[in-house]
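thread from #wetlab-drylab

HS: before we spend reagent money on co-crystallization trials with 1-deoxynojirimycin, can we at least see a predicted complex? here's what I'd submit
DV: go for it
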Amino acid sequence: MVWWKEGVIYQIYPRSFLDSNGDGIGDLDGIRRKLDHLAELGVAGMWISPFFKSPMKDFGYDVADYCDVDPMFGTLDDYDRLLAEAHARDLKVMIDWVPNHSSDQHHWFQEACKSRDNPYRDHYIWRDKKPDGGVPNNWYSVFGGSAWEWHEPTQQYYLHSYLKEQPDLDWRNPVVEQAMLNTLRFWLDRGTDGFRIDVIHRIAKHPDLLDNPVLDEDSAYFGQEHRHDENHPDIHGYLKRIRAVLDEYDDRAMVGEVYLFDPAEAGAYLGDGDELHLAFNFSFLCAAWSGKAFADEVAQAEKSTPATGWPTYVLSNHDQPRHASRYTFGDDAPDDDRKAKLLAAMLITLRGTPFIYYGEEIGLRNGHVPEDRVQDPVYWSLGPMAGRDPERTPMPWGPGPHGGFTTGTPWLPVDASAATRNVDAQDKDPHSVLHFYRALIALRRARPSLSMGTHRTQAVNESLFIYRREADGETTSVVLNFGDTPTHLPDPLQGAPVLLSSHPDPDPTRLAPYEARIVGG
Ligand code: NOJ
């Protein structure tokens, strides 16, 4: 099996998965202890968000050493043990790789700051102030404010696309490229199965750092066309060389965070099968609640994935509100899981690699984080709505104190819902979201039409989305009722055997509100 195409990948935010040493922060040994949970879920592997040495200004996306584990997460030995035990369960391990920027605590940057002629100076992007004393160009940081930070001791600005503590590396310097490729080899040599690549669409900028066109003076970063600070064509050359490193090893894969709004441009990052293996498609993160809205996104993904490529789908991640919260509105009861199950059925049965985010397998909602417990700096720079803590609250494993996540004080509060919404409780309930995810993934594994088959949309309207998957003479149809009223099941599907339904007692002729039904034929 081609694990990164046929299988399901599970994202772990390590700070929030399981704390094995009582310091309130999840760690590698915590992940190792929960490998059976992943094996039972049936996923092919995991992607672990950063656990490298870091001052944690952006919770690990500010890397101070690409080749070491931060002590709060454990040691390299812990990583090797986790990897070995994952492999023993036939689980692949992908790790995060953050090539666009390092931490300001990385020794390259520390050296670069010492003087303009330091050998590491050109690992980063430095510029003089303008003759009028202003910043070198009009670029903004994604996290707010100018993308330039003044460095008083050496009298130049450096570029940072994110926090000022995350200086951008200069990939145009071949020494940087080689050093970064070697960090990949470091993890590949240990047996790591692949990488999730952070903001790959940003690693090359226009060489002359030209101003971006301004569309709306008042909207800062969002008011610019990002013509020159991202998506530079040179990135494709870097990616081909990154891919060549992975191809030095057997059966490895990488998925890139290509945060571009044009799906065709994101598709281009797959190259001719010689760049990324997979590119994230974030379109579901903003889709409205309707059959048509999701069907349109699927049509777009099908159209913009090159013939040599393969689509991906994701409903939640560590940067966006959890989908069970996004789509819980109006009169929805907080424990109504019908929408979560409907979306799960769609995610796992589409043609493409599904990425699931820890907690979504129990229908986890955003956690409540009071202002005095806020951790994410983006809450303060871009405003409370942009803060990412609610989707990062700890995994509730059981009903006990702190949901069984830690014996100490959790770094983010465990939501009060953990008393009833937790892994243990759902394990005991055959109608839980957890059991439904397990059944869906088992079905995807058992049916080639679901894991590898073609996709054809059969019917779409505001409430219905019906599609058919086919492979090797096997056909599977998926019928999704986004509506809050029952609806007629199309005649040709009425006689087909029900393989799985989100409803405990599916009616042969009609779909219940929010029902997802998967039928053979
Ligand atoms: C994208 C990551 O997903 C996000 O969490 C991080 O803050 C930025 N890249 C910067 O690395």
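DV: The chain has a mean pLDDT of 97.
HS: ok that's useful, forwarding to the group
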